[in-house]
Amino acid sequence: MAVLNRMDWYDLARTTNWTPKYVTEDELFPPMLSGEFGLPLSAWEKYDEPYKQTYPEYVKVQREKDAGAYSVKAALERSRIFENADPGWKSVMKAHYGAIARGEYAAASAEARMMRFSKAPGMRNMATLGCMDEIRHGQMQLYFPHEHVSKDRQMDWAFKAYDTNEWAMIAARHFFDDIMMTRDAISVSIMLTFSFETGFTNMQFLGLAADAAEAGDHTFANLISSIQTDESRHAQIGGPALKVLIENGHKAEAQKRVDIAVWGAWKLFSVLTGPIMDYYTPLAHRKQSFKEFMEEWIVAQFERALTDMGLDLPWYWDIFLKDISQTHHGMHLGSYFWRPTLWWNPAAGVTPDERTWLEEKYPGWNDTWGQCWDVFIDNVVDGNMAMTYPETLPYVCNMCQLPILGTPGKGWNVKDYPLEYNGRLYHFGSEVDRWVFEQDPERYAGHLSIVDRFLAGMIQPMNLEGALAYMNLAPGEMGDDAHNYAWAEVYRALRETRKAG
Amino acid sequence: MALFPLTSNFEGDFVLQLVAVDTDNTMDEVAAAAAIHSVGRRVRARPGHILRVRQQGATEFLPRDLKVADAGLKPTETVEIIWQAA
Residue-wise pLDDT tens for chain A (501 aa)? Predict the structure, then answer.
């Protein structure tokens, strides 16, 4: 018997809406879970997914992808790539796995919400596949690092990080809880798939795949390329939902969700991806600066995606364009200076050659960020290590949960964006973070940042030791300089040369 | 006399930091407490300068001998610590 072509039966097969007789439509699709846009089932039946795949096709393709990634891993297990890799590269892997692996598992539940509660049959089908994608990503990104756990305790954070109160994980959870764990199906499609995945995960996965290949880590390169092919499919769930909302007069609500999610994603990438690209990756392997990558992959592509969809650029686009050459330098300096609070060893990335590169990519770097690093480097060269560590907490933003920072040195522009709400003083890192809070204050007001928790006496004893224990960082796990400060030798030699001269 | 948290925005530094002071501390003592976390760590000392304290956005400095308890500051409010030629 001849098999019908997929497109001869696909539309009919996924026409799975019906008129409920025993319950109301709102009982079948509770607005809180399905989206409170007041649109009937018929409006959502116009949802037309751009990427159509059937279950048998999905299984066949995924099986091949898994076979590819797992066989590369098996073939290279004895290659000692991990043992011989640059310490900066190992830090990239540790940061990535800890921040991402369990988040992928959590994303499976967000996809499942779209699968069950979306009124759009096409979305339910795509999200079914998307949910299985995310389970696969969670499993792979836990299985792959597991072979390194016995060699390096920090690798254990691939699994552990998500359950801890480590500050970067509080920030990651706050963001993902906001955009995918506590939103209705339609909002998840806009905030997780359209805003975060279309806008940003491309960058994390494509950029890292290129860096991994450069660093000779073909297992990691294959793994994340394999994941990215899933992402590029299920990231398309949100686009048609936006189209339905805009056509039915809900552009403002759609736009607001995009604006909130894009800003949060940007802040998270500024601390996770920015330092990796501009500081951890060995100079010889850098293809583009973080700013150049952002301009190509986020600014150019995402601007087009937004305008093609009939949406506006977020109201803060000018602030965002300015911040992509600044914020991540502060996130790097901050995470490096508070390095015992990380589960990876950050690379400083500030040798004279690296500073020349930074100055070329970010004119003025030496007069701003460089001024802070000058003091730090002098302390390392002098052996005054106590002054290279902090003795207090950085103040963190009550929205993104990341340090409130700006440009130092000659370009000093650091500023707090405070807001008093119900008698409590909140602090924000930017006008945009404060705006997000103001859109729905009750949604966010009860959350305590790591600093709020410290002030509330929840961290004992009230010192660095207490803070590290609160963050579940055991000895052997807390971060220190990736290269054990070997990079400072060149500054020591320069000083000797100057003395001799 | 009681512990009082403030947020330090130190001129030349890159990040806001939590600083614990006492309600009996003067503004000079607040500046000195903030300096511990910035000067010599990421900001160079400036010989011939003193440090002054002002509320964020203000143009006037708070008097050097003004006590925290009398300054009208809220707990965790951000103060700017600014270099001034002596």
Answer: 678 888 899 989 888 999 999 999 999 999 999 998 999 999 999 999 988 899 999 999 999 999 999 998 888 888 888 888 889 889 999 999 999 999 999 999 999 999 999 999 999 999 999 999 999 999 999 999 999 999 999 999 999 999 999 999 999 999 999 999 999 999 999 999 999 998 787 767 777 788 788 888 889 888 988 998 898 889 899 999 999 999 999 999 999 999 999 999 999 999 999 999 999 988 988 888 999 989 988 888 888 989 999 999 999 999 999 999 999 999 999 999 999 999 999 999 999 999 999 999 999 999 999 999 999 999 999 999 999 999 999 999 999 999 999 999 999 999 999 999 999 999 999 999 999 999 999 999 999 999 999 999 999 998 888 999 999 999 889 999 999 999 999 999 999 998 887
Of the candidates A330, A425, A454, which has its C-beta nearest B77's C-beta?
A425
B43 and A372 within 8 Å at the Cβ level: the answer is yes
Contact B77 A379 (CB under 8 A): no
Hey, is B82 helix, strand or coil?
strand
The answer to whether the Cβ–Cβ distance between B14 and A406 falls below 8 Å is: yes
Number of Cβ pairs < 8 A linking chain A and chain B: 100
pTM above 0.90, yes or no: yes
User: A75, A119 in Cβ contact below 8 A?
Assistant: no
Q: In this structure, are residues A398 and A449 in contact, taking their beta carbons and an 8 Å threshold? A: yes
Domains parsed from chain A with CATH numbers: 55-500 (1.10.620.20)
A396, A384, A377: which is closest to A330 by C-alpha?
A396
Residue of A nearest to B41 (CA): A387
Q: What are the Cα distances from residue B64, in Å, to A296, B30, B31, B35?
A: 50, 9, 9, 15
